[in-house]
Amino acid sequence: MKNTFAAFVWSLEVVVFSYRTVAALAVLAALWCSLAYEWLGLPESSALMLILALAWAIAQVLAGVMIVGGIVSGVVKASVAEGLDLPVSSLWRLSRKDTWNTLIFLILCALGASLCYLILGWVNGHALEVSSFLTFRLQRPVSHARIEEFFGAMEYLIWIILIGYLLSLFTTLMREGWRGVRRHQWKLMTGSVFQSPFLASLLSAGVVGFACDKVSNWHHTVPPGFWDYFQVIGRYSFILLLISAGGCFWVLFLARLQSPREVHPEN
Predict the structure, then answer these.
(1) Which of these, 129, 144, 167, 178, lies nearest to 253 by C-alpha position?
(2) How far apart are CA 200 and CA 251, in angstroms?
(3) Is the pLDDT assigned to residue 261 strictly greater than 60?
(4) Are 143 and 131 in contact (CB under 8 A)?
(5) How far apart are CA 20 and CA 167, in angstroms?
(6) Is 69 exposed, middle or buried (0-12, 13-18, 19+ CB in 10 A)?
(7) What's the rounded Cα separation, in Å, for the pair 130 and 226?
(8) How many helices (DSSP H) and strands (DSSP E) are in the chain?
(9) Tell me: the pLDDT tens digits for 215-250?
């Protein structure tokens, strides 16, 4: 627990001192999302527009790979260093090998997450059948709403564990390559479920998710017009900053816990 607390403090300090990187990441995320939204609105009226849409999509994917891979690569380098800064240049400075590794890893993650989403969706769709079965077996009414709440809580926990496990694999990939991923995958899996990495994932996702939910559902009464638009833009800009800071903190925390150099404050 001592090393876990030291890793928590170090990760928090790096996020605070790297506020420029966090702000730049939020801006890039907003720009990426706005460009993706514009891409969805492209008409399919001609072959030229289809080619433009394909080129746009490839550019979006490459930009996302560079940003995600760059920030994780920078985090891995920072996790074994003594400094408390994550440079802004890490958002776009990525080697060709790491770029390909990131692309392949993200494709595998997308396939795995899609499969998990389908399975959890199938389970959630049978809440009524489960409540009916329990009502019959227990001989007293069991509300399907409670079953859905239970399934929702379990789904939230499973997603936290899965994302934490994938982030741990990602940092290992950036540090040791695919051989390191194969060598440490079971250790990382057990850590993501039972040990300090699970606590790191639960803390990161829980705090950021709760804060984003409260901010997004907060509606301050203002006169229509400029101030109404201003508060909407302000709220969602703050949410982007929260997500960027929380994501950096999550990866930093996990990377520091897995770092070959154990965190010993007294050294």
Answers:
(1) 167
(2) 9
(3) no
(4) yes
(5) 23
(6) buried
(7) 50
(8) 8, 0
(9) 877 776 767 777 777 777 888 888 888 888 888 888
**Token pair of 170 as six digits:** 């990602």
CA distance 252 to 90: 14
Q: How far does Cα 89 stand from its chain's mean position?
A: 20
Q: Quick one: tokens of 260?
A: 């070959």
> What is the per-residue pLDDT across 85-109, written as a single tens digit (0 to 9) for each?
788 887 777 788 888 999 999 999 9
Exposed / middle / buried, residue 82 (Cβ in 10 Å: 0-12, 13-18, 19+): exposed
Closest of 94, 64, 100 to residue 77, by C-alpha: 94
pLDDT tens, 183-196? 888 888 888 888 88
* Main-chain phi, psi angles of 83, to 5 degrees: -75, 170
Please report, for residues 22, 30, 34, the alpha-carbon distance to residue 236 in angstroms, rounded to integers and kept in the order given: 15, 10, 13
Contact between residue 157 and residue 201 where contact means Cβ atoms under 8 Å apart: no
Cα–Cα distance between 189 and 225 in angstroms, integer? Answer: 51
Q: How far apart are the C-alpha atoms of 62 and 132, rounded to whole Å?
A: 48
> Taking the model in full, what pTM does it have?
0.83
| Contact of 174 with 76, CB cutoff 8 Å | yes
